[in-house]
Amino acid sequence: MEFIFHIPNQLSAATTTVLALLLFLCCLLQWKKCNGKGKPPMPSGSWPVIGHLHLLGELPHIALGKLADKYGPIFMIKLGVRQALVVSTAEMAKECLGGINDKVFLNRPQTIFVERMGYNSANFGFSQYGQYWREIRKLATIELLSNHQTEMFKSVRISEIRSAMKIISARGSEFIDMKQWFKDISMNTIVRLISGKPLKEFYQGEQYDQCANTFRDLVELAGAFIPADSLPFLRWLDIGGYERKMKKVAEKIDHIAEEWLAEHKKRKVCKETRTRYDFMEVMLGIYETEQKNPSNFDADTVIKATCMALILAGADTTAVTLTWALSLLLNNKDVLKKTQAELDAMVGKERQVEESDLKNLVYLQAVLKETLRLYPAAPLSVPREAIADCTVSGYHIPAGTELFVNLYKIHRDPKVWQDPSEFRPERFLITSKDYDERGQTFEFMPFGSGRRICPGISLAHRVMQFTLANLLHGFEVSTPSGELVDMSEGFGLTNLKITPLEVILTHRLPQNIYNNSTMAFN
Description:
Layout: H1 13-35, H2 60-71, E1 74-79, E2 82-87, H3 90-97, E3 105-107, H4 112-117, H5 131-145, H6 147-152, H7 154-169, E4 175-177, H8 178-195, H9 199-202, H10 205-222, H11 227-230, H12 242-269, H13 279-286, H14 299-330, H15 333-347, H16 362-374, E5 384-386, E6 390-392, E7 395-397, E8 402-405, H17 407-410, H18 457-474, E9 475-478, E10 502-507, H19 511-514
Helix pairs in contact: 7-8, 7-18, 8-14, 10-12, 12-14, 13-14, 14-16, 14-18
């Protein structure tokens, strides 16, 4: 059957014009509804194919901060075939991570690192948002990172710090690289919580160095810029040899995790009696049957990927923050003296610092907060990706757009922070005392915010506060000839200090106090 639409002859030209205008207005309203103001501003200078990649030659968080000064607190950049939204103020961050958009920016970009070294997205820190991510994050939080578990395993932290303090106290007044010292403490603590033993008990001598270097390579590759992520057609060239190196390091990481898992399975078969279980042991019990696995990954892959995710997230970030904190204190001797004066008043010099003392060390807490403000461990935050179209500040943001939250810029916003580049812990005792680093205040969120906020905040607080308190209480710290510490930053997943932090330590307590026996951990 054929339908013929007939326009009456009496329809005037004026009427036709009005109808056409109405149709145009309807289309315009629909376009505005979908697109708002259109796309956010985009910096000039975009090159064919590579987009704005050439503008990120220096440290990305600083380069993007300079672009924000020119183009405003929200803008879009092209990274090869990808596009990313960059926000640089608390208000813009709140729009992306809070309110109606807190369910939008929840995915992670799927990069070559995630494929090669993240167990193909089984590493929940880089996995897509969904049931698997929710289940693994919940498990890690309840069984390792909750306040309850943090309190239960305090003997591990105490033991590692006491052991490290005893070692450096025996070395006398010689140069010690505190950057490496912090790394060793952080790594041994998190590995012990996960596997039951510190790294130094699994491997000794050259084997320990090789294992530590493997984990260091893991962190470096996690933050490396891989050209093929932005320009996939170049992957076959493997520019810089990154993918080849990832394959080698991934094999080593998996071998380490496999060794730990095999030891735990053997222990389980032998039915060893234990009074306390480490995280890998707990996971092994949970994933004994495939029915309990919320993904298509086999149980062993889930366990190994989750344990390595926690090591990647926990060890380096803690060590980096402590390194910056001590560096800032050495360059601000008045703050260092105030911190040690508080320790002397609250703890005295007849014993070492206990975790129960931490609640009274409010100035030391302010020192760490100010460190996290100036040098957040992830200054550009970990990239996110929109799972659906959304609107930010009136701009239409399409699904698949990556999100960079420039914490470095937000934490130094002169509209929020007085003398933003100055190291002033007192601000967290006066004007900014209500700023909480648990993601509720978008002016200060070193651990992120929203649903993908770092779940290890409680554990990180305890480790950082206890480590720094014991060090400053136990030793006078100085640099050779009283010189200032080099504060040059490096590029990576975390905000690295490029140069070593070599200091001279001098005892502040009676020698016998450093020789207290370490606490046992079963």
